[in-house]
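Appendix B: complex inputs.
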Amino acid sequence: MEQVYKNVELTGSSKESMEKAIENAIERAAKTIRHMRWFEVLETRGFIEDGKVAYYQVTIKIGFTVDNPDVA
Amino acid sequence: MEQVYKNVELTGSSKESMEKAIENAIERAAKTIRHMRWFEVLETRGFIEDGKVAYYQVTIKIGFTVDNPDVA
Amino acid sequence: MEQVYKNVELTGSSKESMEKAIENAIERAAKTIRHMRWFEVLETRGFIEDGKVAYYQVTIKIGFTVDNPDVA
Amino acid sequence: MEQVYKNVELTGSSKESMEKAIENAIERAAKTIRHMRWFEVLETRGFIEDGKVAYYQVTIKIGFTVDNPDVA
Amino acid sequence: MEQVYKNVELTGSSKESMEKAIENAIERAAKTIRHMRWFEVLETRGFIEDGKVAYYQVTIKIGFTVDNPDVA
Amino acid sequence: MEQVYKNVELTGSSKESMEKAIENAIERAAKTIRHMRWFEVLETRGFIEDGKVAYYQVTIKIGFTVDNPDVA
Amino acid sequence: MEQVYKNVELTGSSKESMEKAIENAIERAAKTIRHMRWFEVLETRGFIEDGKVAYYQVTIKIGFTVDNPDVA
Amino acid sequence: MEQVYKNVELTGSSKESMEKAIENAIERAAKTIRHMRWFEVLETRGFIEDGKVAYYQVTIKIGFTVDNPDVA
Amino acid sequence: MEQVYKNVELTGSSKESMEKAIENAIERAAKTIRHMRWFEVLETRGFIEDGKVAYYQVTIKIGFTVDNPDVA
Amino acid sequence: MEQVYKNVELTGSSKESMEKAIENAIERAAKTIRHMRWFEVLETRGFIEDGKVAYYQVTIKIGFTVDNPDVA
Amino acid sequence: MEQVYKNVELTGSSKESMEKAIENAIERAAKTIRHMRWFEVLETRGFIEDGKVAYYQVTIKIGFTVDNPDVA
Amino acid sequence: MEQVYKNVELTGSSKESMEKAIENAIERAAKTIRHMRWFEVLETRGFIEDGKVAYYQVTIKIGFTVDNPDVA
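Resulting structure:
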């Protein structure tokens, strides 16, 4: 079958690590998006407070298969 | 009038050609998006099986006019 | 708290200026998106009629906090 | 009909604003190019004198339809 | 001999395929440019009408050898 | 298992189409590379002769799983 | 003489316009940097409050001639 | 108030992780720069010794508010 | 001596972290490549299963000194 | 005065050096373009014959002031 | 005939010049690769010792025709 | 030890060659920066006078180890 994917962009944040920031974004997306297949890191940033990393912010693009008419 | 467009990103796939992959993505998007105006190719990839192209995957950005409050 | 943002892409247009094109896009987005935090300019284009700028078109990415399950 | 466009690159300058720099470039191009359709901003720079912006320089690509043999 | 090339940018369009859009641009350029040697695809876009691809638009850079004083 | 892939870059050419140029590159690679999984288009160019496209040249990156010590 | 320039990066902000954001950055830089010659816009962003642009943020690179040993 | 930021580029290194490399760079910068606000990852590299990662090197851009005349 | 390096591109994967994905790729490369000196991260992606990160995929370029005729 | 510049792209070649390739392109352009002001290197390539550099090819963008109606 | 090329990436170094760094890389590659056709400069770097350039490092991509089964 | 580097950007100019422009920038930087380790070429431009190259301008990023509190 010839599949169609939709790609959305999210930014996750975490005080701990880049991986945790990505996982937070995907966990949040999983509440409303089914059939997520892959992600790609677009940008890694962060905020600094008192001379230390306060949290990491990782922006990712998530691709998911489009399986019903109300998603696109 | 000063028009506003929303841009979404889709990936279409096809065993035949890049054009067919694009057309599949647009055909699928047409089920839920009205007033699509243009597209731009962002990335062309594909999968290989048994040493041959299994299918093409073309990622496009589609722009459409925003005409009612529940689209953006 | 570890916040998640969703980023969407819009193109605003204006006969007057780039700033007005951006503001038109954001004003339109505000009808359906709450909690918008920032934007980034991705592309600036325009149309020409009779040898003059007919209108500016500025494409922006808007980031907003995701606060309920039906947004992502 | 299947139209062909030619794209040329110009840099306009203005003491006032980026928009005025773009308009100066297009106004100048209009003296010799007919049927201009669109532009895209490629680069925005400027010169500084005495600690202030002396003028803005905006480089644009202009697309126009090719309608006679002596243009390309 | 130490050759000099000039590069120009054209956008061809076609209802059928990307290849046809490129060939239309080159065919049109051939009316006024001699000694074209190569091209490079810069951008692939298209217009959509009634939920289908209306035509493909491929922007290419064409390189040609400069052989007489009135070309550059 | 945690798979490792090697990526190589090839340029295929074809008088007919971009797809055929890609397929020629992959067909040639299949003579010496096993377990190819995907490709990505990096660049599309071509040569011009007598004012027409002589052939398309498509540069792709091919990813394949590394399964024995003499491949990397 | 063979001049050397140093380039620094600043982000200016303004509630009014992109030009004013650039001018604010340059005005601030002028307090400590002499002999500034040019700038280049690297990025244009902004913050949104209550569904409106709160302020524009323009990041520029400023080049200045190095004229004494304590600048570089 | 219309704030001005200065952006500087640092490369931190760590034997452990990318996050630790970033934190080392920021910790070092904190000795001389006050009011750091954010960072952005520009490049991630590393050195290899004896077939293993010897250390990660992450290059970041740090933005800080300019609050006195001797910083810019 | 004037050294020559060869650069190859590998993609490592890991369920745990980006660092582990990089280390897996380098560990695998070490089986056949001697004298590896550095790496650079080119792309970070991943796969998602059941709404969670299944594994990270990091593509790196590895540089190694060319010390014998059968490597290049 | 608010000056307008036109930018054209040329590729020069030389058996000797990159600088000579650039100078060949500019020398050739000087036959038909007056008031050239600056150039920017876009791409550096070359051809190889018998395992040695046959010649360098440097593609540059040249900016010149537009001073009469038949140039743009 | 429809030719296939393989592209490899090498970094050459030289105390003298960028051209010599490129030539060193190609001369080294010529020991194992036949039928090299072209190169493209990807990156120019260098090392500094005692406040002077110690050597230039130029990374190039080399394309060669694939003429036998054991090359790809 | 886990080293931190600071990166600064300079533009050197030379009537002779790109290498000389780079060396001029580094020679100038050496007056105030100790422990410079490497550079990377970011941009190559130049000025034209009377249809000839007046001088080359090469912009480089220089990395140096941060060894005392008053450098960053």
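Strands of chain C lie at 4-14, 36-49, 52-65.
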